[in-house]
Design brief:
5-stranded antiparallel beta sheet, transferase, kinase, HWE histidine kinase domain-containing protein
Length: 564
């Protein structure tokens, strides 16, 4: 019962849990979409800022190219002009002009002896494209610091006469990204066309100047921007929005990653709180179910069951004493009223049984007195004139009295078939036992079968004495029985008596034979009135009933005894 109550509590909580799970899934899906959108937006913003920086430097180089001293390649004037420009722009270290052979011409600072730039990738690319070029992460040969070089051609008509070169300070770009601010767990990465990281927040000291992992190199030159989920090098699971290099507008790769742990932290906290609330609610519901079940269901049911057990044990005064408006109280009160009625019926049945027993004893006493009176009259009438016949008559009368005493008092009802038959015949053949033959195994009958069989045998013997073989001088009776699978078949066969015929009506004896056995015995009988004497068969159960449809040994389904 407790398990059933707990199951009810679980069933009550199931819809709430299902709703919370559904809301949790929907909320996480919504939050995931929001974070993806935020990551894509953050990547666009960072990329836009990088583009503005590049566009600003491009405009600066265009302005430098328009300066007369630069266009005329007037070295002293060019040096002075470029030095003045650099002093006012914090994001670059140098601006210089290089000849088409890679040799420096003029610049914002003195050139080291023997320095040359023709081997630089950006220089070769610019000579090929004759367009503005953003190079890759490079260690500067002038200031020995990492820079992101930029270059554009100095044109005179359609001919390129020189190259103007500058470089974005990597430390300045890193500071610019850092100043933008990045939430805990998030990351912004800027990389060049080779996949070398030029700026990174957080942990720039760990990543700047290193190559992106091979697994992410494909993102640098992807066909279009996108948002993916990945495990970053620092071991953080992130939702990453990225902008691949798309020349000429996007010369650098930019990505913005949002930590899933941080992004879903509020939802995780809410999930934890909801889970704890569900667990707490479930525990409360279980405890309440157990307490309420014990108090209002199990205790009343146990009280009713206890009263029933006491009744089984004979304590008929036990009652639940339950009252109240609830259903179990009504059941208990109804049960008490039922026990009161049963107790009253039991008392009335006991009184009736006592009265019946008294009547039986009175009847037995009167029968015994009747036999005693008959015996006294017989003794006074012919005991002296014919003592031998009187003694025979007295013995038979005593046997008959004993048989009636057995029937009325139920004594000896639990006996073997042989004992029951012998007792029932004793009154009819008290001095002629040789005329009766008994043949059968030792079969002990239960009490509710022994008495009916005694009545049937007594009635058969009475009829045989009045009309059959026991009424003649030489007539005999053979009684045979056998047992098979809980059934007992008894056959009464009369011989050497007067001729018999089928009676025209039923007497009380026939009705007694039909109805003597209880229903559970499934008794069936048959009478065969042969010229030589009656053959009577009866079969009855003393164990478990046989299966329905089993062949009846008597050969019929409905057979009734007839008056012999």
């Amino acid at each position: 019962m407790r398990l059933k109550l707990v199951a009810v509590a679980v069933a009550a909580l199931a819809p709430v849990v299902a709703m919370l799970v559904y809301n949790e899934v929907a909320l996480r899906h919504q939050r995931n979409e929001e974070v993806r959108a935020s990551a894509a937006q953050a990547a666009r913003q960072a990329s836009s800022e990088v583009e503005r920086i590049i566009e600003g430097l491009h405009a600066l180089l265009v302005s430098v190219a328009a300066m007369p001293s630069v266009r005329q390649l007037d070295v002293p004037a060019c040096n002075a002009a470029l030095e003045a420009v650099v002093e006012s722009i914090p994001n670059i270290r140098t601006i210089f002009v290089v000849g088409l052979d890679g040799q420096p011409i003029c610049g914002s600072m003195a050139f080291p002896e023997g320095v040359i730039f023709s081997d630089r990738d950006y220089f070769q690319q610019m000579l090929t494209t004759k367009a503005f070029v953003v190079g890759t992460y490079t260690q500067s040969r002038l200031v020995d610091r990492p820079v992101l070089p930029i270059a554009m051609p100095l044109m005179e008509g359609d001919a390129m006469k020189a190259v103007i070169v500058s470089g974005i300070r990597v430390d300045w770009l890193q500071n610019r990204i850092t100043e933008r601010g990045v939430a805990t767990g998030n990351a912004v990465t800027i990389a060049d066309g080779n996949g070398t990281i030029v700026a990174r927040v957080p942990s720039p000291e760990r990543f700047v100047g290193t190559a992106m992992p091979d697994a992410y190199q494909r993102l640098i030159h992807a066909d279009q921007p996108d948002v993916i989920e990945l495990m970053s090098e620092d071991g953080t699971e992130r939702i990453l929005g990225y902008r691949p290099i798309a020349l000429p507008s996007n010369p650098l790769y930019v990505s913005a990653g949002f930590s899933k742990e941080e992004a879903f932290a509020p939802i995780n906290r809410a999930t934890t709180m909801n889970t704890l609330a569900i667990i707490g609610g479930a525990l409360f519901a279980f405890l309440a179910a157990i307490f309420i079940g014990n108090r209002f269901i199990l205790v009343p049911i146990s009280r009713i069951a206890d009263v029933m057990e006491k009744w089984r044990g004979g304590q008929t005064t036990a009652r639940t004493g339950m009252k109240g408006p609830d259903e179990l109280g009504v059941v208990g009160a109804t049960f008490d009223r039922l026990l009161d009625e049963l107790d009253e019926r039991r008392r009335q049945s006991q009184e009736a049984e006592e009265e019946r027993s008294l009547l039986v004893r009175e009847l037995a006493h009167r029968v015994k007195n009747g036999f005693t009176l008959v015996q006294a009259i017989a003794r006074q009438t012919f005991s002296r004139s014919d003592p031998e016949r009187y003694n025979s008559f007295a013995e038979r009368l005593a046997a008959l009295a004993g048989t009636y005493d057995l029937i009325l008092s139920r004594e000896g009802s639990v006996s073997s078939v042989r004992e029951i038959v012998s007792a029932a015949l004793r009154a009819h053949v008290a001095s002629q036992a040789e005329r009766i033959r008994l043949d059968g195994p030792e079969v002990v009958l239960p009490a509710d079968i022994a008495l009916p069989l005694s009545l049937v045998v007594h009635e058969l013997a009475t009829n045989a004495t009045k009309y059959g073989s026991l009424g003649s001088e030489y007539g005999t009776v053979t009684i045979e029985w056998k047992q098979d699978d809980g059934r007992v078949l008894l056959v009464w066969t009369e011989a050497d008596g007067p001729p018999v015929s089928t009676p025209t009506k039923k007497g009380f004896g026939s009705i007694l034979i039909e109805r003597a056995f209880p229903a559970k015995a499934q008794a069936r009988s048959r009478s065969d009135y042969r010229p030589g004497g009656l053959v009577f068969e009866v079969i009855f159960l003393i164990g478990e009933p046989v299966a329905k449809g089993e062949v009846d040994p008597l050969g019929k389904d409905d057979m009734h005894a007839s008056e012999t």
